[in-house]
Amino acid sequence: MRKAAVFLIFISAFALLASCDKKRVYDEYEPIQGGWEKDSTLVFKLEELDSLQNYNLFINVRNNKDYNYRNLFLITEMRFPQGKVITDTLEYEMAAPDGSWLGTGFGDVKESKLWYKENVSFTEPGEYKIAIKQAMRKNDEVEGIENLEGITHIGFRIEENLQ
Length: 163
Known about the structure:
The protein has 163 residues and is mainly β. Helices cover 11% and strands 44% of the residues. It contains one helix and ten strands, in the order αββββββββββ.
């Protein structure tokens, strides 16, 4: 009897937590181990989405105290099923001027949910791909940082735009 009650409470709590995120359509993370190499591209493959729905797109970044910069530059590509590619160079602020992290979380790891695109519709049938790579450079240097330390995970999230 007691085991059944504990199991029922566990299932109820899980269902409650899952229902709190009703807008989520896609939410995946890729781990970064040993630093994010300059030429390493992370690719998120998107299953077919409702072509009549509009979505908001986010890049999620988890960093720790080994990240030595206040901002983060990324190059993204949205690859359409029929071959079209949209490339963006993005800059995100990761820390306040006093050095405190802007992300959420406890301890050494902070997570930042960063806007990527708003009110997007996926009208072409087929698989879309989102490619993300780091584009960090030191001031007055042309070459990028070979191995960016302190980024532990990169995620991609799609939410329904309920407006």
